[in-house]
Design a protein that fits this description.
COPS7/eIF3m; signalosome; single chain; COP9 signalosome complex subunit 7; Arc Repressor Mutant, subunit A; elongated; PCI_dom; mainly alpha; 3 strands; 9 helices
């Protein structure tokens, strides 16, 4: 999946970078957010020429791309009057991304919560969406529990990190690095102790062997 994502991102980055005007660029963004396999949009979002969409009639497409990078279906419905109308493939994609966002936080997703977030009307429709658009698509794995009316998440693909998450991610990585350094020092000390112990054992064995040889010679002479 990572290789496929990398190739898709590279493709759309090139397409967007080569767009001659804001209309062409908007068209590329629609293609990218409609692609059934593309999950990451931050690299496209960081392109300098996307700024040309501001102050144009296509400025909403920049907000649309931000929505696919970090938002959910609920974010779209709350601001749909300020955003371009989504085509069916985009609607499916944004609902898939919404499931991923929920799966990042919760490992058990109640059906009622999912139906509300995705604006689906019944359990059959929800389960069909989870199976066909999420599990078969390879973006999540889990168990559909009809008795408990929930989806138990076993695996979920990642989404683009939100800007507000970067500080927390840096802190988490810093803590991990500090703990790794402490662990490395501890391992090195244990290696030194093992080496020293091995040397002591070796010396003791040599002393014992030397005494045995002396005893053998003594017995032989006697």
């Amino acid at each position: 999946m990572e290789q496929e994502q990398s190739e898709l991102v590279e493709h759309f980055v090139k397409q967007a970078s080569a767009s001659p005007n804001d209309h062409a660029l908007a068209s590329v963004l629609v293609q990218a957010t409609s692609h059934p396999s593309l999950l990451f949009f931050s690299e496209i979002l960081s392109l300098p020429n996307l700024l040309q969409l501001k102050e144009t009639e296509n400025s909403g497409y920049l907000d649309m791309l931000r929505l696919f990078a970090h938002g959910t279906w609920g974010d779209y419905t709350s601001n749909s009057d300020q955003l371009p109308q989504l085509v069916p493939d985009q609607i499916v994609k944004l609902k898939q991304l919404t499931v991923l966002t929920l799966a990042e936080t919760y490992k058990v997703l109640p059906y009622d919560q999912l139906m509300q977030e995705l604006e689906l009307t019944n359990i059959r429709e929800l389960e069909d969406f989870l199976i066909r658009e999420c599990i078969y698509a390879g973006i999540v794995r889990g168990k559909l529990d009809q008795l408990q009316r929930c989806f138990e998440v076993q695996f979920a693909a990642c989404r683009d990190s939100r800007p507000a998450q970067l500080g927390s991610m840096v802190q988490t990585l810093s803590n991990w690095l500090s703990k790794s350094e402490i662990l490395l020092v501890s391992i090195q000390e244990k290696i030194k102790w093992a080496d020293a112990t091995s040397e002591i054992v070796k010396k003791h064995r040599e002393e014992v062997e030397e005494k045995v040889e002396k005893l053998k010679k003594f017995v032989k002479v006697s």
